[in-house]
Amino acid sequence: MKNDKSTIRAWAMFDWSNSAYNLVITSTIFPAYYTAITTASDGGDRVSFFGLTFINTALANYSLAFAYLTMVFVLPLLSATADNRGNKKTFMKGFTYLGSFACIGLFFFKLETLEWGIICSILAATGYIGGVLFNNSYLPEIASVDQQDRVSAQGFAYGYIGSVLLQIICFVFVLKPEWFGIADASFAPRLSFLLVGVWWMTFSQIPFKKLPEGRANGKKLSKHVLKSGFSELKAVWRQIKQLDGVRKFLGAYFFYAMGVQTTMLVAAAFGEKILHLGAPKLIATILIIQLVAILGAYMMSYLANKMGNMQVLAIVVLIWITVCVSAYYINTEVQFYLLAAVVGLIMGGIQSLSRSTYSKLIPKDQKDTTAFFSFYDVTEKLAIVIGLFSFAFIEELTANIRYSALCLALYFVVGLFLLVRIVLENKRGRKHLEHVL
Question: For a surface tag, which of 232, 328, 349, 395 has the fewest beta carbons within 10 Å of its beta carbon?
C-alpha cells in the first residue's frame, strides 16, 4: 500500500544507516586522515600504490572513479536479475554488508597499508552505490506521485540527521582522544571507520524487516545474465526515448550530476589541501553542511510545489556554478565556511529533488522500477566517473587543485542550459512535463 507512514519511515531509515558512510568516509574523517598520513613533513604529496606513483588526492579520486565505473557495468546485471526474480531486497542486503564490512576493514588502514586502505575504500563505495540503487527503486512503490517530493526529502533528512549523530560521536573521539586514554593519533580516525560499518549494518535491519522483497516481472531471464542485464537497460532506453520528459531530464541530470557528486566527494580534501584546516575544522564544517542540508532538502521540496521541479533545479544549478567559480578564488577560512554553508543549502535539495523528479516522470503503470532506477543510477555513476577522473587528471596535469574545481563549473553550465531548454519548451506549449513544471 502506498503512502503507508511506517513503511516510509522504514525506507527512510536506510538513508539514516548508509549516510554515515557518505559523511564520515567520503566527506570528512577519511579524506582528512588520508591526506594527513600521505603528506610528507616537507609538504610532498606523492604516494606509491602497487609500484605506481600518484598525487595522493588524485589517487583517492581515481580509486573512487574505478569503483563507480565498475558499478556502471554491474548495476544493469543486478537490476535485471532483481526485477525478474523479485528479490531486490536480497541485493540491497548484500551490498549493505559488503560496504559495512569494508568500512570495518578500514580500521586497519595506515600509511604502511596504503593498498589495503584503498581497496577497502573501493569496496565500501561499491556497497554504498549498490544499496542506494535498490533503495531508490522503492520510491515509486511506496509513495504516490503527489507525495514523492516529500518522501524523497524525508529520506535525505533522515540520512543527514543519522549521519550527523554518528559524526558527533566520532568527532569526540578525534578531538578528545585523551578522554578515552587514546595515545595513538591514528586510532581515533580508524575507530570512526569501524563505527560507521557497525552503524550502517545495524540500522539497515529496520528497512530490511519492513520493506517488501520486490515483485517478479515474469519475464524470461536468459542464461547469459550479463547480456540480459544490458538488454534490459537497452529496453529501458527504448522506452525512455519515447518518454520525451524523462529523456531530456536525464540529459540535464547527467551533466549537473558530474558537478554535484564530484564536489561532495572532493570537498574535504580540497579544503585540507588549499587551506590546511586540519581534521577538527573540516569535520565541524561538514557537520554544519549536513545540518543546513536538512533545511535545504525540505525547502527545495516546498519551492518545487510552488514553482515546479524544473525551475527550482535550474535555480539551484545556477548557484552551483557560482560555488565552483568562488572555490577557485577562496583564500581564507571565513570564505571557505561561507561557501560550505551555501553548498549545504543546495546539496540536499538538488539530490532529493532530482530523485523525486525522475520518479514522477516514470509511467505510473511501470512495474520494472528497479530497471528504470538502474538506468538513473548508471547515468549518475557515469557522470561521477567523468567528474572524478577529470578532477584528478586536471590536478595531476596542473599540480593545482583549484583548476580542478573551476572545471566542474563547465558541467553545471551545460546542465543549466539543458534544464532551461526544458522549461522554455514547456512554456511554448509542449506539455510533456506538466506535473513537474
Answer: 328
User: Cα–Cα distances in Å, from 47 out to 99, 296, 355, 389, 411?
Assistant: 25, 38, 37, 18, 29
Other CB atoms within 10 A of residue 364 CB = 8
For the CA atoms of the chain, what is the radius of gyration? 21
- Cα–Cα nearest to 119, from 56, 193, 66: 66
Q: How far apart are the first and last CA of the chain?
A: 27
SS3 353: helix
Task: Report how far residue 370's alpha carbon sits from residue 214's, in angstroms, rounded to the nearest whole number.
Answer: 9
How high is the mean pLDDT of the chain?
84
Structural domain contains residue 437: no
230 CB contacts (<8 Å, ≥6 apart)?
Answer: 76, 77
Task: Give the C-alpha separation, 97 to 393, whole Å.
Answer: 32
Tell me whether strands 46-49 and 52-55 are parallel, antiparallel or unpaired.
Answer: antiparallel
How many angstroms separate the CA atoms of 150 and 379, rounded? 23
- More confident site: 363 or 100: 100
423 within some domain: yes
Cα–Cα distance for residue pair 65/12, rounded to 1 Å: 27
Give the C-alpha separation, 167 to 275, whole Å: 22
CATH of the domain at 422: 1.20.1250.20
Task: State the residue range of the domain holding 311.
Answer: 5-211+224-427
Pure H helices in 308-400: 309-329, 333-361, 369-398
The answer to whether the CB of 163 falls within 8 A of the CB of 283 is: no
Return the DSSP state at 205. Answer: H
Contacts of 225 (CB under 8 A, 6+ apart): 77, 80, 81
Closest CA to 187 of 82, 100, 109, 87: 109
pLDDT at 31 over 90: no
Kindly tell me if the per-residue pLDDT of 233 is higher than 70. no
User: Closest by alpha carbon to 284, among 229, 341, 326, 322?
Assistant: 341
Average pLDDT rounded to a whole number, residues 52-79: 86
DSSP3 helix / strand / coil % (the chain, rounded to 5):
80, 0, 15
Is 435 inside any structural domain? no
Closest CA to 44 of 266, 273, 267, 333: 273
Whole-number Å distance between alpha carbons of 133 and 131 = 5
Tally of helices (H runs) and strands (E runs) in the chain: 16, 2
pTM score, two decimals? 0.75
- Do residues 333 and 275 touch, judged by C-beta distance below 8 A? yes
- pLDDT-derived band of residue 228, with 50, 70 and 90 as boundaries? low
pLDDT digits (tens, 9 = 90+) for 141-158: 888 878 887 888 888 789
